[in-house]
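Pasting as-is:
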Amino acid sequence: MIFMGIMLAFTMNAVFRRILRSGHLTFQNRADLHAEILALRHELAVLQRNAPRRLRPTRAAIVFGGSC
C-alpha cells in the first residue's frame, strides 16, 4: 500500500512538472512570436519608406487609356 502511494505521488509530481514545463514553453513561444512580429513590422516600415512612389495617372492617360 505504501509503495502504491509513493508511485502515485511520483506520477502526480511528474505530471505536474510536465504541465508547468508546457506552460513555460507556450509562454516562451508566444514571446518569440511577438518579437518576430515586431521585427517584421519594422522591416516592412523601412521597406515602405524606401520604396519609390507610384506615379498617378494624368487625366489624358485616363481618357485615352494609355500613358501620355
